[in-house]
């Protein structure tokens, strides 16, 4: 059961996380709720890394292990950003989580030629979303949500494809 949760959990958690980010930008989620979400996310990331460490020893999975390790640090910066409070630390967290998985997706596409289009598309969609999000923060207008939506779509496509491929290989 732990393996099922570890393998399928991100297919729900990734899009849910980006929906929460979008809701937060619309003022629908409190800072306290975001702090709690970061703490829960840090626990999930640590759990995924610990329980899957030995399985993530080579190829694309090794890159994703690095994403988890660096991502834990990025998430901890978000926690610090809510506790201090510090907008730059919060920005490191959100933009970090936009770009880290994008790098993992692009690297996966590089290695996994059978699904190169899926992973390159998902990765570049995430990069585009991060760029739109970062540029639009100056005005905090509707493009912020467009950037979040692009990142969410790219990362969701990538994680769902990975989960479906993993299920077919078992």
TrEMBL record:
Keywords: Membrane, Transmembrane, Transmembrane helix. It comes from the Archaea. The chain crosses the membrane at residues 33-54, 66-85, 91-111, 118-137, 143-164. This is Uncharacterized protein.
